[in-house]
Amino acid sequence: MKLHQLRYFVAVVDTGSFSRAATRCGVTQPSLSQQIIKLEKELELSLFDRLGRSIAVTEAGHLFYPRAKRILADVDEARDMLAEELTEGHGHLSVGAIPTAAPYLLPCALAGFRTQWPDAELSITEDMTENLIRQLVDAEIDMAVMAAPLDDERIQMEPIAEERLVCVAPADHPLAQRDSVGRDELNDHPLIVLHEVHCLSQQVRAFCLSHRVTPRINCRAGQLSTLIHLVGLGLGISLIPQSAYTQQGTHLGVVPLEGPPVTRTLVAAWNASRQRPRLGSSLVDQVAEIARTSSDFLPVSSP
Fold it and tell me: What angle do CA 47, 50, 73 make, to 5 degrees?
C-alpha cells in the first residue's frame, strides 16, 4: 500500500470521478485507475463499483475512506512538523575533536552553537585522529574537527582554521627574551613533544625533517596541558598551537620562528557517503568565525 494510491483513492471519492481525480492529482486517468486497481487487490476488496460512465463507492470504500484520510493527514503533519523542527534546530549532533584542538577552539564555538540552537542535543567525543576517522566511517559520530592532511577517501573535509604553531620556553629562558628564533637554533635546546599518536607530534616531526632540524627530544607527553607544564618547569622548549599558549601558557615565553609562519590546518570532516549534518554546518560556521576574529589563526588555505 503506497501513499500515492491512498491520495488517488481519496481524490476519486471526493470528486466522484476517475477523470476529475486524475486532473486533481496531476496524472493520467489510466495511471490513476491502475493504481486504484492495485490498491483493491492488496486490500482484497472492491472500493468502487464501476457503472459504465459513473462510479459508486462500495461499503468497503466508505469504511476505508476515513482511515485513508487519517493516514494522509498524519503523514502531512509529520512532514510539516519535521520541517519545523529542523528549522528550529531540533535533532542530535555528535561531534569529535582531536585533543590538541578540543579544549582551545571548541568551548566558545559550542557556547555560540548552544545559544543559536538551544533545543539541539549535542554530544562531544575527544579522541585521536585515527579513532575519529573510524568513528566517522562507522557513523558513530556525525562530524569531527581534526588537522589536515587526512589521507582517507572515505572522509570529506573542509578547511575551517589555519592555526599558528609557536615556540614556547620557560619565562626565564634566554629564548623568551628574544623577538624570534631561527629554525636551526632548535637544535641547541632540548625539545618536549607529544606522543606519536597525536597528529601534532607528527606535524612537528615533519617540520623538523623538512628544515633539517634534529632536536634533542627530552620528554614525550600524553596531553598538551602536561607538555605546557613540563616546559614551565624548565625541562625544555616546545612547538605548540598558539591558541594553547593563549589560554594556558601565560607562565611561559612565546617566541615566533623566523621566516614564514609555521601553521597547521584544522578541518571539519565527515563521512563522504553521508550527508553533511545541517547542525554540523552551523557549528563549523561558529568555529570559523572564532578563527577569523582571533590573532591565533591565519586566513584559511586549502589543505
Answer: 35
Nearest of 231, 4, 197 to residue 98 by alpha carbon: 197
What would the grid cell of residue 299 be?
Answer: 586566513
pTM above 0.85, yes or no: no
Tally of domains within the chain: 3
| Cell 569529535 sits on residue | 96
- The kind and range of the H/E element at 165 are strand 155-170
Do 191 and 66 share a domain, yes or no? Answer: no
**60, three cell numbers:** 468497503
- Shared domain for 52 and 126, answered yes or no, is no
CATH number of the CATH domain containing 145: 3.40.190.10
Distance CA(186)–CA(163), nearest Å, equals 20
If we measure between CA atoms, which residue out of 271, 152, 129, 143 comes closest to residue 203? 129
- Residues 273, 150 within the same domain: yes
User: Coil, helix or strand for 87?
Assistant: helix
Q: What is the pLDDT of residues 263-285, one digit of tens each?
A: 899 999 999 999 888 888 888 88
